[in-house]
Amino acid sequence: MESHMKLKITSIALTLGLAAQSHAGIIAYTDYSAWQAALGSSSQVTENFNGSASNFSANSTGNSIGTYTTLDLIGGVGDPGPTGLTGNGFLEGEVDSSSFSTDDGLSLQFNASNILGFGILGLQSDSSSSPGGLDLEEVGIEFGGESFLVSDILGLTNSSDGNSVSSVENSQPIPFIGFLSDTPASSFSFVHGDRVALGEVSGGTEAFYIDSLVLARVDVPEPPAIALLALGLTGLVLMRRKNA
Questions:
Q1: What is the reported pTM?
Q2: Are 32 and 180 in contact (CB under 8 A)?
Q3: DSSP codes of every residue in 215-238
Q4: What residues contact 54, with CB distance under 8 A and at least 6 apart?
Q5: Is residue 136 within 8 Å of 170, Cβ to Cβ?
Q6: Torsion of the alpha carbons at 13, 14, 17 and 21, rounded to the nearest 10
Q7: Element (H, E) at 151
Q8: Are 43 and 220 in contact (CB under 8 A)?
Q9: Which of 79, 87, 154 is nearest to 123 (CA)?
Q10: Which of 24, 29, 100, 243 has a Cα at 20 to 30 A from 50?
């Protein structure tokens, strides 16, 4: 059954290269190992989406999808998804460009505190047993004020030339797509490709599964040694006053 078919995604690098795109302060990666190496000593946490099945409403905020992350649905009045946890280890979502002037269009905002970047493992169509078929040019990602098409990141299209973007379907789950920023952020978003390359994107398959999400977080520095020493001295002074 499909509930027993969760795909085990490894950190195998795509042969399409290390960093597919670099915008001001943001670098996109397709190689999990290279992304981790670039993080250095920054801490990482993972959302495995192993919670109970859920289905979120249009224009809802603060929906829990794990320990560290919440999800906001922006729009979706005409069609909110389904969006939520599948109950068998995936996050299901959708992006929709049905209208820019009303809230029928749908974007998904992922909220997490103090992140330097994130990694998406196992992006695929909304079926774990038949993972091909997602139109990659229809899925855009916004982070740190920059926007990317998934198909551009993978080197399959080039939306920067101003021409219509060809339809590109995936044949299997995308092992890894990741981003790093030089400035901490509190969110990133999945948007329809039309919001990245206005008027250039066409396609009809924009619902997806994500196997797991890795967050790179800003490490909270330890108190300086001198501060610890000051605390210790203060404690000694207080003890002596008490004894006196």
A1: 0.81
A2: no
A3: EEEPPPPPPPHHHHHHHHHHHHHH
A4: 63, 84, 85
A5: yes
A6: -100
A7: helix 150-153
A8: no
A9: 154
A10: 29
Nearest Cα neighbor of 90 from 4, 183, 22, 149 is: 4
Each residue's pLDDT tens digit in the chain (244 positions)? 333 334 333 333 333 344 445 555 899 999 999 999 998 877 899 999 999 999 999 999 999 999 999 999 999 998 888 999 999 999 999 999 887 667 789 999 999 999 999 999 999 999 888 889 999 999 999 999 999 999 999 999 999 988 899 999 999 999 999 999 999 999 999 999 999 998 888 777 899 999 999 999 986 554 554 444 444 545 544 555 555 5
Q: How is residue 103 written in tokens? A: 């809230």
Question: Shortest CA distance to 191 belongs to which of 240, 130, 132, 148?
Answer: 148
